[in-house]
Design a protein that fits this description.
210 residues, six-stranded mixed beta sheet, alpha/beta
């Protein structure tokens, strides 16, 4: 079993990384492999809502989002981390996940469905719960169980050194990791005992005028 830890910060070893690293160490203690994926500083274009992915099976924009969606198939769960920018997720991760999850659905990739997900955020001071709400929506529209800690999944600090002093925040990262590992092990046990996945229905689309 392997979890992808997504660092949505442009800073490779910044505050968000400290939180993800704490999660990675705890997952290892629980016998779960993990890998930190760095979004980096590459320019990520926003979704064009062109729906080309329906025909192509991938996003028409040629950057690493397509590679990521294909790569995601090899993981059993996902934890997305973002710094707080203007009381919301940073622009890079928003553009990236908008397209990744859209092409996953429209292109019928099925890389995320029914796999557990969690969001973690880092901030100097505030905007954390709004950012968590924003990131959690990617999970709820994709049939992904959301894993929690014992508090909202956040750390505080203006620098990585500050975050390392946020003992409560780091403890919650460890609790989140243990809860995540437990859920993965339950999923594995369910598969081994023949419990089927939820029945799929054909999606019905409506709007407010018909």
């Amino acid at each position: 079993m392997k979890v992808l830890l997504f660092n949505g910060s442009p800073h490779k070893n910044g505050c968000t990384f400290v939180a993800l690293e704490e999660i990675a160490k705890t997952l290892k203690e629980e016998g779960i492999d993990s890998e930190i994926y760095q979004i980096g500083t590459d320019i990520i274009a926003p979704c064009r809502a062109c729906y080309a992915c329906r025909k192509l099976g991938k996003c028409v924009i040629n950057d690493k989002v397509n590679d990521f969606v294909n790569y995601a198939n090899g993981f059993d769960g996902f934890i997305f981390g973002s710094p707080v920018h203007y009381a919301s997720a940073c622009g890079g991760i928003t553009a990236f996940l908008d397209r990744a999850f859209f092409v996953n659905f429209q292109g019928n990739k099925k890389a995320f469905e029914h796999k557990p997900g969690a969001a973690i955020v880092s901030a100097r001071r505030s905007g954390t719960t709004a950012t968590l709400d924003q990131l959690n929506k990617y999970f709820t529209i994709t049939q992904m169980p959301i894993i929690s800690g014992r508090y909202w999944n956040m750390v505080h600090g203006a620098t990585p050194e500050d975050v390392k002093q946020d003992l409560e925040g780091l403890q919650n990262m460890r609790i989140l990791a243990r809860n995540f590992a437990w859920h993965l092990k339950c999923n594995e046990a369910a598969k081994n005992t023949g419990i089927p996945m939820p029945k799929e229905e054909e999606i019905v689309f409506t709007n407010f005028i018909r």
